[in-house]
Design goal:
Strands 1, 2, 3, 4, 5, 6, 7 and 8 form an 8-stranded antiparallel beta sheet that branches. The protein has 4 helices and 8 strands, in the order ααβββββααβββ. Helix 3 crosses helix 4. It is α+β, with helices and mostly antiparallel strands. The structure holds a DNA duplex.
Amino acid sequence: MTLLDILELPVEEAAPRLLGATIASDVGGRTSLRITEVEAYAGELDEASHAHRGPTPRTLAMFGPPGTLYVYRSYGIHWCANVVVAPVGRARAVLLRAGVPIEGEPRMRDRRGPDRPIAAGPGMLCQALGITGALDGSSVLDGPVRVEPPASPVPYVATPRIGISKAVDTPWRFVVTD
DNA sequence: CCAACGATCGACT
DNA sequence: GTCGATCGTTGGG
């Protein structure tokens, strides 16, 4: 299945198909991760989505074409990255929550600081890959940060999403099983 | 204009 | 396990 095929699926089906994918960044040299944890957000249909009340300047990228990166600031401190899924205007997106190092581990350790996890959460993942708001609206198909889907689907479990206050029971967090 | 509040992390107990 | 940091965005007045 190609990345474009995956990005045409309903978001709760696309999200787990991105588990095991490679995310590669050319920001400040090459770094890449294997994606191990994601969450699905369903735009206007989803009380927990930033986009559920329609577009705002911050969330505009989420209303763009499949493969667009939506990058936002969390708690005034961290950056978090999503890959937009589904047609223009639907604002469905997959939050990239965690990964394990493939390339550029020393550079990622350097960015994260000594003795800290490399990409065990969405803020850490962005810091490790050098993703900032400057990449909001770029494309993972041909931009400085790209995604390559796994050769075959990876086993996972589904759980409720983390850190939200609405739709807390919807099991749209997907985690690779060891 | 302004107050409230996060799709979190890291330090500390 | 708990809690404080920190600031851009949002929406209400």
